[in-house]
Amino acid sequence: IRNYYAVFIKMQPIITSVNNPLIKELRALKERKYRRRSGCFLIEGRRLIEDAVRNGIKPELLLVQDDRTEEFALLSEQCLQTAAVSRAVLESLCLTEAPEGAVAKVRIPQEMPEGDGSLVLVLDGLQDPGNMGTIIRTANAAGIRDLYFLGENVDMFNPKTVRSAMGAVFFVHPHCFGDARELYEHLKERGYCVCVTALSQKDYYSQQLPKKIALVMGNEGNGVSRESLEQADRLLTLPMSPEAESLNVAVCAGILIFDILYRR
Question: How many Å apart are CA 177 and CA 174, to the nearest integer?
């Protein structure tokens, strides 16, 4: 199979120009508006591509560095189309300075049916792709499948988010809501207690936790929105040193997620 693939790919013209129309079209997927328009995004490196395939997502296009085609022969069989490109072309599509030999175009998963987990996350206005990716990765590690996005968050399929999430974007179920009242009514109807991370006089460790929790994490600079605060059933505050002004939102999410699970 590998030899057959190697012969086949060598018969195809290698894309060597960064101005090739296909390459320009793929490079545009680094921007949110083009991802929304096409319904696709880019992933780079063997691990992310294999994670997509393992979750039943068949890449629409696999681009392989021309001197590494045999290395990706078996993976190419899981893709709808494959092409060889020069290193310069591959680098123009990647975030990393040393690309791992392949880039794939995949379709953004459609909104998934909700699970029945006892802990879900609500992300309210996050703007940093690194934080978003870390939270998604942490949620996946904890077995959380349902993530609710309220309002304008950084795109879950931003290249930096995808890379930071280390493949976890393929294993969580995103649910997007523009209206806070609609979201929180939706969650409360399903028995979730809305627990919002915000300053309060009662710290997190002094509280008894309900069985079903919707944990709300807010914007890096401004915290959760006023609408989320108005809908909160409980406020969760991690105790900190008086000298500390705040805690990174991804770190805070990780502490709370695993402590909630540990208490159970």
Answer: 10
Residue 167: closest CA among 17, 1, 49, 70 = 49
Q: Which residue has the tokens 């395939």?
A: 53
Q: pTM score, two decimals?
A: 0.88
Tokens of 80: 């709808």
Radius of gyration of the CA atoms of the chain, in A: 21
Question: What value, to the nearest 5°, has the Cα angle with vertex 197 and ends 193 and 200?
Answer: 100
Strands 102-107 and 61-65: antiparallel
Q: What is the pLDDT of residues 214-254, one digit of tens each?
A: 999 999 989 999 999 999 999 999 998 888 888 899 999 99
What type of residue is 174?
P
The closest of 247, 193, 187, 255 to 220, measured between CA atoms, is 247
Q: What is the pLDDT of residues 170-204, one digit of tens each?
A: 999 999 999 999 999 999 999 999 999 988 778 89
- DSSP string computed for 92-104: HH-SSSS--SEEE
- Pair of tokens at residue 135: 């939270």
Interatomic CA distance for residues 121 and 99, integer angstroms: 32
- The answer to whether 6 and 84 have CB atoms below 8 angstroms apart is no
